[in-house]
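The protein record filed here:
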Amino acid sequence: MFECGEEVLVNQNAYKIIRLLGHGKGGYSYLAQKDGKQFVLKQIHHEPCDYYNFGNKIEAECRDYKRLEQIGIRMPKMIDVDIKEERIVKEYIEGETISDLVKKDEVKDEYINQVKEMCSKLYAAKTNIDYYPTNFVVQNSLLYYIDYECNDYMDEWNFENWGIKYWSKK
C-alpha cells in the first residue's frame, strides 16, 4: 500500500498519492495528483480471492477496458498503463458512489434507468460488468462505471438477477 504524500512512478511520471479510494479484488485505487490534476492510480495486488480467478490482472484490465470502450460504456478514460509495475492511471470521476447513495436512500430512478441502458448495450455484446454499487459514481446526474472488469454474459450475474439486490436498502 502507498502512503498519503508518497510519490509513485508510472512509466517515469510521478504521481502524488492523496488518499486511498478503495480496495477491491484486483487492486488498490488511490486518488493521486500530477500537474495540479487529479487521477486514479490503481496498483494491482496479488492477494488471494476465493471466488474469482483473474489470470494476468494487468492484461485483463487493459483487455476489459478496450472491450467496454468498444461497447460504449460510460467510464473513466485510461490515461496510462505501466505493465512492469502493474499500475494503471485513469481519469478521476468525482462524485458519490451508488453505494453511498444506497446508504442515504437516495438512489434515483434515473440512475437505475441509466444502468439498464448500459445493460442493453452490454447484453447485446454478450457481456456483464460488476454491478456492485461501489463500482458506479454519479457526476452531474450521469452514471459512470468506474471499474473496468467485465466478463462473458451469464444470466445469474446480470443486473436483474444479481446487481439490483445491492442497489436498494431492501
About this structure: The radius of gyration is 16 Å. The longest strand covers residues 13-23.
